[in-house]
């Protein structure tokens, strides 16, 4: 029983650290992806149409959040299933 109680905090910390590492890696890849593929277009959009640029930037932020949540949830499910 005691080992079971000690495993829950350890498991939670492990899951958090894995999720943090995955988020960090994916955000870095995403930033370089956006800069490489969309950087010039976003710059031009910012220069010529601030409203459209703001809308596109907001969509990119929301899309990034949704994709990151889906990927990390999938990875954590896979990790949990292997740990059990």
Brief write-up:
This protein has helices at 2-48, 50-83. With 84 residues, the chain is mainly alpha-helical. It has one domain (2-83).
Write the layout of secondary structure elements.
Elements: H1 2-48, H2 50-83
Helix pairs in contact: 1-2
Number of strands: 0
Total number of domains: 1
Major sheet size, sense and barrel closure: none
List low-confidence stretches.
Answer: none
Q: Percent range for helical residues? A: over 70%
Strand content: under 5%
Series of H and E elements: HH
Please, what is the average pLDDT? 82
First-residue to last-residue Cα separation? 17 Å
Shape, per Cα inertia axes = elongated
- Give me the Rg, rounded: 19 Å
- Briefly note the structural class of the backbone: mainly alpha
Give me the number of helical elements.
2
Characterize the structure shown.
By secondary structure, the chain is an all-alpha fold. It has two helices and no strands. The chain has one domain (2-83). The protein has helices spanning 2-48, 50-83. It starts with a helix and ends with a helix.
Observed structural traits:
elongated; mainly alpha; 84 residues
């Amino acid at each position: 029983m005691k080992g079971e109680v000690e495993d829950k905090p350890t498991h939670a910390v492990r899951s958090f650290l894995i999720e943090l590492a995955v988020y960090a890696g994916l955000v870095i890849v995403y930033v370089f992806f956006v800069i490489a593929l969309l950087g010039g277009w976003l710059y031009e959009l910012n220069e010529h149409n601030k409203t459209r640029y703001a809308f596109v930037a907001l969509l990119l932020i929301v899309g990034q959040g949704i994709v990151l949540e889906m990927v990390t949830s999938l990875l954590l499910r896979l990790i949990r299933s292997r740990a059990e």
